[in-house]
Amino acid sequence: MKAVRMDGFGGPEVLRIGEVETPEPGDREVLVRIRAAALNRADLLQRRGKYPPPPGAPDILGLEAAGEVVSAGSASGRWKEGDRVCFLLAGGGYAQYAAVHEDMLMPVPERLSLEQAAAVPEAFLTAYLNLFWLGGLRSGDRVLIHAGASGVGTAAIQLAAKAGAAPYVTAGSAEKLSLCRRLGAVSGWNYRDGAFADWLLRETDGHGADVLLDFVGAPYLAENLKSMAQGGRLIVIGTMGGAVADGFNLSLLLAKKLNLMGTTLRGQPQSEKIRLTREFVAYAWRDLESGAIFPVVDSVFDWRDVAEAHRHMEANRNMGKIVLRVE
Q: What percent of the chain stands above pLDDT 90?
């Protein structure tokens, strides 16, 4: 089969399409012909040699994809040839085929194209994991979502609003903030205008964020702590701005009785990913089928233009997900 390969580590120019072996489905695995795969920040890090795949995972980029079932192998019979499915991967999405555990597959709603479906798994499962499993999100909570116009951000806004919480966001342009409001954000702050904590405290009448999802890391830590409500849950999902926080003052952590957590979806055991997939499908799939919630797709690139797709993400030009059409 064909797949996107890397000529060493480096910039987008190292990416090329080459030949690799087609995977053989193992016990309870299904072979899927991939038609679309979505980009994630993890792909950019792995391309630069800063985020190796977990043990046993393919070294091919790509953490989510969509396509059609080719063969079910020794699986239970739940899936049949031609079924449209989308799924999370530990690696291997930028390829023509993937072998996927049958319980990791999600049916694609009729209203969604495969390009749209490829934008669902990583964004929505990451948002669900952090909002509900770690954040314990409840109706009435105020939730601050940084990078609100990102794939995970756009998913988190919709899931928070569905739960009866009040989403607040930061983003880097008026256009991105407008998108976030259309998705259900109560209010937004352009981070280019400076610190955000005073804005959030004003917007919430001094309450602050019960749950905060942060992709930026060290540069936001002090403002994040200032933004939190009593007993709030601060969840670090990424460190795009840096990982080392100089002069970290623990006093607000203690005074506000905060929970500070960090997690990655890729590193979760498969059993936990299966449980997460099942919970998310039970919670939100009818809304995806009806269009009440939906993946936000910024752009679709032919996979021969994968380098340009990576440049588009690195420039932070996207609002929502960037998708590769796999031929």
A: 91
Q: Where are the alpha helices (DSSP H) in the chain?
A: 41-47, 114-117, 121-128, 151-162, 174-183, 197-203, 221-227, 251-255, 270-290, 306-314
Beta bridge partners of 89: none
Two tokens, residue 291: 């269009």
Q: Which residues of 225-259 are buried (b: 16+ CB within 10 A; e: fewer)?
A: bbbbbeebbbbbbbbbeeeeeeeeeeeeeeebebb
pLDDT of residue 75: 72
Structure-block tokens of residue 242: 């840096």
121-128 and 151-162 helices, crossing angle to 10°: 50
Please check whether residue 326 is in contact with residue 36, taking contact to mean a CB–CB distance below 8 angstroms.
yes
Q: Is the pLDDT at 134 greater than 90, yes or no?
A: yes
Which residues, at least 6 apart from 50, have a Cβ–Cβ distance to it below 8 Å? none
Region at 57 (left for phi over 0; alpha for psi -120 to 50; beta for the rest): beta
What 3-state DSSP class applies to 124? helix
Q: Nearest CA to 228 among 205, 202, 241, 209? A: 209
Distance CA 226, CA 223 (A): 5
Confidence of residue 35 (pLDDT cuts 50, 70, 90): very high
Residue 49 token pair:
């040699």
In angstroms, what CA-CA distances link 24 with 74, 85, 302? 11, 18, 26
What is the model's pTM?
0.96
pLDDT at 320: 97
Per DSSP, the three-state class of 14 is: helix
pLDDT tens for each residue of 87-106: 999 999 999 999 999 999 99
